[in-house]
């Protein structure tokens, strides 16, 4: 059986996606169902790759888990990965590890912008993009994506206006969670050029960069480091290899001054020490898992096609943003005239949990985000539940 279709049990391992449902805002206790299928949190419902399991097992067998450091081998592996996959060259000392990308976003904002600075985000977008700004007492400046029939684009005109007004930072999401765009090389170049022109720091969250479909090759801002170096590139093996709980991400900063400020911010909060198992997993992921990754992308592609087919046949009034990358589908259910909260709690009563579209920006009530990183069987069950909910809704 295809690795990605093998049933696995994620219950009772303190998984946020599976076990935390009971505690979240949707009050699982109030639903009629004993089992809820989760299509919310962005991790995957299949096992990670065997080389990663082997590397972790071997490290666990050593039996000691004392403090560790980022060694030359680790840095070289990350450097070789970005060169081999995305064709940009970096130096080992540009890489800083952080427990997570959100942690890095928070500290990039606090270390590199001034109090009450304007920071641009392009909504709808992953909700912590907003909180890392407000929790640092900076101001959110929205550059809303332009919605077309089944895809989104950046509003470059408004972006330029916002930059002219003096934004200190733009936080880019590429691939873009939740609308599933993989920005093209031309789009990324335009963003970099505009940031350079208006001297705005560019933070690029590229956590989903490895999960892109063939027709949508990924362009990193790292390919433009020679044009502009005031950029903070955030990447991680966590989404790609389903190892987010190992708390290891890689932040790439070319400019020495920026890097020193960022490292200082992590250091004064004692967040510099890496996770011993996270490092092992990342090394194995970036050296031994290319085939596994390719198979996973094919699996996600097939799952996305399954979703399109099901909706076309059964829920044709919904609009699904075309998925170019990530495993997160963005579905416009406004034809039902329900708020996202009503959609989420209604679906929960029918046995599935999805994310509320309203989390990702003010104009997205009536949307849901649907995570398709699971077996085809689980996906089919989820789709049938959505179909039943829509059919029975009066
Ligand atoms: C765009 C984006 N950035 C960051 C994260 C979380 O990253 P981390 O767990 O490394 O903080 C997610 C998780 O869903 C995400 O979608």
Secondary structure elements and pairings:
Layout: H1 16-19, E1 37-38, H2 50-62, H3 72-86, E2 95-98, H4 101-112, E3 118-121, H5 128-134, E4 139-142, E5 146-147, E6 152-153, H6 156-164, E7 169-173, H7 185-197, E8 201-205, E9 231-235, E10 249-253, H8 256-268, H9 276-288, H10 290-314, E11 319-320, E12 328-332, H11 340-350, E13 352-353, E14 355-356, E15 367-371, H12 376-392
Question: What would your notes on this structure say?
Answer:
The chain contains twelve helices and 15 strands. The chain has 394 residues and is of the alpha/beta class. It has two domains: 3-49 and 290-392, Aspartate Aminotransferase, domain 1; 64-288, 3-Layer(aba) Sandwich (Aspartate Aminotransferase, domain 2), CATH 3.40.640. The protein has a seven-stranded mixed sheet, sandwiched between helices. The chain is globular. The chain binds pyridoxal-5'-phosphate. The site of pyridoxal-5'-phosphate has 13 residues, from helix 4. Residues 42, 100-102, 126, 173, 177, 205, 207, 236, 238, 244, 249 line the site of pyridoxal-5'-phosphate.
CATH architecture of the largest domain: 3-Layer(aba) Sandwich
**Structure summary, number of beta strands:** 15
What's the gyration radius in Å?
Answer: 21 Å
CATH homology group of the largest domain: Type I PLP-dependent aspartate aminotransferase-like (Major domain)
């Amino acid at each position: 059986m295809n690795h990605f279709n093998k049933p696995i049990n994620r219950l009772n391992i303190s998984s946020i996606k599976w076990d935390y449902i009971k505690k979240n805002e949707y009050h699982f206790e109030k639903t009629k169902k004993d089992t809820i299928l989760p299509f919310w949190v962005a991790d995957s419902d299949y096992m990670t790759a065997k080389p990663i399991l082997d590397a972790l097992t071997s490290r666990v067998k050593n039996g000691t888990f004392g403090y560790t450091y980022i060694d030359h081998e680790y840095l070289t592996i990350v450097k070789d990965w970005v060169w081999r996959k995305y064709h940009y060259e970096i130096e080992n000392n540009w890489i800083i590890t952080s427990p997570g990308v959100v942690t890095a976003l928070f500290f990039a904002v606090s270390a590199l912008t001034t109090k009450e600075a304007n920071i641009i985000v392009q909504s709808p977008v992953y909700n912590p993009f907003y909180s890392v700004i407000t929790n640092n007492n900076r101001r959110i400046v929205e550059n809303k994506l332009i919605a077309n029939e089944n895809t989104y684009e950046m509003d470059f005109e408004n972006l330029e206006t916002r930059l002219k007004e003096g934004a200190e930072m733009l936080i880019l999401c590429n691939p873009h969670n939740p609308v599933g765009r993989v920005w093209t090389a031309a789009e990324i170049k335009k963003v970099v050029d505009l940031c350079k022109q208006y001297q705005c720091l560019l933070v690029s969250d590229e956590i989903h960069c490895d999960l892109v479909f063939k027709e949508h090759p990924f362009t990193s801002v790292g390919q433009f480091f020679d044009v502009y170096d005031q950029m903070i590139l955030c990447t991680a093996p966590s989404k790609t290899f389903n190892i987010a709980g190992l708390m290891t991400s890689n932040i790439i900063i070319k400019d020495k001054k920026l890097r020193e400020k960022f490292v200082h911010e992590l250091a004064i909060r004692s967040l510099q020490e890496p996770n011993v198992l996270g490092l092992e997993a990342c090394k194995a992921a970036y050296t031994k898992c290319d085939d596994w990754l390719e198979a996973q992308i094919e699996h996600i592609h097939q799952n996305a096609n399954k979703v399109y087919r099901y909706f076309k046949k059964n829920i044709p009034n919904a609009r699904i943003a075309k998925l170019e990358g990530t495993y997160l589908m963005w579905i416009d259910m406004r034809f039902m005239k329900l708020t996202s909260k009503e959609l989420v709690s209604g679906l929960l009563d029918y046995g599935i949990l999805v994310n509320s579209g309203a989390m990702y920006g003010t104009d997205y009530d009536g949307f849901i985000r649907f995570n398709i990183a699971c077996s085809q069987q689980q996906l089919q069950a989820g789709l049938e539940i959505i179909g039943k909910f829509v059919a029975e809704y009066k």
